[in-house]
Each structure stands twice: as structure tokens, then as C-alpha cells.
């Protein structure tokens, strides 16, 4: 078993970011629920524990707390934000609601570098997000850094190896936050940087085998990186027990079905079934223009088609999916408020009570670039690994408004031209994602001597590292000109091309 840093999850949207920062340092990290039993915690054999942040207040009744015995394991513990406050409270200090919430950037003044801030400047810009604060430290602790609003921004009890940070070192806005995490890993926990994605395969294969036993698994293959990597990984773990199912929902890009079948035949040894269900999806979507309703219908129909396939396969217990961490986090209502749900990603949202299948999601903790690394280690070809992400609801969320065959056909042709030109100009690999969107808006144009009155195609191209945030790509004028001219000339039904210059947030990458 690799040296492990356990991250106990108290519900912060950054919990997986902490785990990812650790993996980036070639140290294995596992996220466990905050209330995991000591048996489970000890079984992971951790060399250090991080208590994540979270939306709760330690001052409320029923606040999430870990088993207190984690503080008697004799290993270093680092509390971050909520994690710090619970450490303060559980170990005998005092926590109060702040007069002034501390949110966003602040200047951290380091009074004592110690091990946590070893090698760092005396002042750092850090990112905070908290409404409670420690007002009295537990016995044995010492304050080592403060901000204007927080006297105890970093505290430590070096004899017990307990450390606490009020700010979030894991987020990009915290200057040199990674260095603080590195100090915890290497100076305090004495980790060796000897883990890599190859080791992840070993661990994941074992976990899949343990979870699945001798049962059968079906996997929803989309042809994208995530599900292809999931298929290859699960195939390695349980081989013949896996059947992959590719649903052609009629919302695919040009020639996509053929390409997916080829990829599978060439690179993944397992079984593949193709369900052609385009007509069914389009019938159900007919006349529906609300984005969330579309997503729900696509999700539901997907389940129906799957259900049918599953039944035809006999006994199956698990449904495997290539769900990644950003899919999970954006499908969780923010602060428990369902209205704050950003989008119901169909591969997380409506699944799978009705199907009576257990979920197997071996990539759930990973970010896209980590999945690409994993795919490479599993021997998948570059053209799959470097493929842009494609949403489960496919072109269904890229034809704005009502879906019709004609609109889909216009979009498919335009999209194929855009992607072709991006590849030809070597821009494809520099982008996180690029695609066309069909706008149900008609505008007047002139072709030859004739007036046209046709639809608008919008080009969307973004850069991003994990889809949590994204910026529009500054594509060269000449490339945009070429794409625009080709679409207008070659695609009947489109007479205007526009370029989307919105970043995420406040916009999202997809339009619906
Ligand atoms: P948004 O539009 O929310 O997209 O900024 C973030 C990333 O997620 C992809 N996306 C999806 N992926 N099922 C998926 O598997 C979905 O329902 C879905 N919706 C959006 C999107 O393409 C982008 O990469």
C-alpha cells in the first residue's frame, strides 16, 4: 500500500482539490467521509490526516465531527478552515462567530515560519472563506500567522504535530499555497514523492475487484476520454465481467458512432454493444426547449435504453461511469439549496435508483488532466486521450431551443468544419474544448444577389485546466475568418457565424 495522506471530507467544494494538490506532489491521497470509523481510517494506514473545510459551523448542534481518536494516532493532522475550527473546539479551545466574515483575499503575516511556512516569505496573499473563528487556542497550541481579521490564521502544536490553517492553501488564489502543502507533506509527514498514476492503476484495480467481486458490470461508453479510460481501467480489473454499452442518442457529432466502435475494437479488449436509439430520444425531446427539462429527458431516456439493454443481458449488478470530480461537484446543490444547482449533469443527476444497479465510478476523484495521464498509462491512443470533453446530453444542449433533425444536421456539419480547421491549424490541442452552438435565431444575409434569412452558428472555444473555470480562447483572426467563411458557404441553413467571448464564471462552457 502506498504512503497515504487521508483527507477527511467535511463537505467543502475544495476537498478534492486538496487531494489533487497532494497527488501532484507524487504522494497518494485518499478522501474519506468525515465520520469514517477508526477501523476504516486505520486500514488506510495514513502517514498524515487533513481535515477539509466545509459549509457547516462547529457552533451548531449536530455539526459534522470526526472520531476524536484521530488525534491519538500519533500522526500529523492539518485542519483547513472548518477543519481548523473543529480542531480548536475538539481539543479544548474556543470558537465564535466572527463580527466580520472573512471572505476572499487577505494578507497573511507569518510570525514564525516553523515547519509549515519553511522557506516562505514573511507575507503572503491568501484566500479565506469563513464566518467562524478560533478565539482561544487549545492548550499547547501557538499562533504562527495572522491576517487583519484573524489573530489565529495559522496555529500549531509541534509536540503533537497538529497544525491548523484558517485560509485555503489548496486554491489557486492562495499565493504559494502549494508550498505550504508541500511543507506539510514532506517536512512534517516525511512523505516520499514516490507515487504516480501507474500506482493509481494498481490501487484502483484492486478497489474495483473488491467492490465488484464476481458480479457483472455494464458501462456507459460515450467515446470520450472519461468513459474510454474508465472502460480500459475496469477491463483491466475484471475483464470479461464488463460489457460496455454505447447509446447512440441521435445527439452525436458527425460520424461519431463509427469512430467509437473503431476505437473500442482497436484498443479495448472487452465486449461492446451499440444501442441505436436516436429516434426515441428525438421523439421525447420534440417541442421541449427548456434546458433543464431537456437534460432530464435525455437522462431519463438514457436510463430507459440502458435498462432495456441490461435486461437483455441477464443478471447485472453494477453500472460503471466515467464521472469525474467536476461533474460531481457541479451537480451538488450549493449549500444544500437545490435552487443553486448549476446544471444537472445527466451522468450524475437522474441515476440510478430506478435501474437498481450499484454505481461504479473509479474516476470520481480525478480531474480531467489526471484522467488523461491515466489513459496514457493504460495504453490508449493520443487521439482519444486528447479529445475534447463532450457532454452526455451531446448536441441536445448545443442546439438551443427545440431540437429538430434539420437543426441537428446544420450543427453537425458546422461543428465538423470548426474542429477540422482547429486540428489543421494545430489549435485543437491548445484548447480545453471547442464546438459550435446552433442558435434558433434567424438573421438576414445576402448570398450572390439573393436575400437569405437563416440561422446563426456560434463558435465556442475555451481554455481551462479542469472546467471549473474557463476563458474564451483568443483564436487568430485568419482562423476565425476561414471557419466562418467555410460554414456559411458549405452549410445550408446557416448564414451568420458569431464568436462567444464569455468566460466561466459567470457563463458556463456549454450554453444549456
Ligand atoms: P459547463 O457547461 O457546466 O461544463 O461549464 C463543464 C464541463 O462539463 C461538460 N458537461 C457535461 N459532461 N455530462 C457530462 O458528462 C453532462 O451532462 C455535461 N454538461 C456539461 C462540459 O462539456 C464541460 O466540459
Keywords, separated by commas or semicolons:
binds xanthosine-5'-monophosphate; 14 helices; 5-stranded parallel beta sheet; 9-stranded mixed beta sheet; 512 residues; globular; alpha/beta
Give an overview of the whole structure:
By secondary structure, this protein is an alpha/beta fold. It is built from 14 helices and 18 strands. A 9-stranded mixed sheet has the order 2-1-3-4-9-8-7-5-6, sandwiched between helices. Helix 6 crosses helix 11 (368-377). It starts with a strand and ends in a 13-residue tail after the last strand. It binds xanthosine-5'-monophosphate (XMP).
Question: What's a concise summary of this model?
Answer:
This protein has helices at 15-24, 38-43, 82-90, 177-188, 197-212, 225-238, 256-267, 278-285, 291-313, 325-330, 368-377, 382-385, 405-424, 477-490, and strands spanning 4-9, 28-33, 46-51, 77-80, 94-110, 123-136, 142-146, 154-157, 162-165, 217-221, 242-248, 271-276, 318-320, 358-360, 433-447, 450-463, 471-472, 494-499. The protein has 512 residues and is of the alpha/beta class.
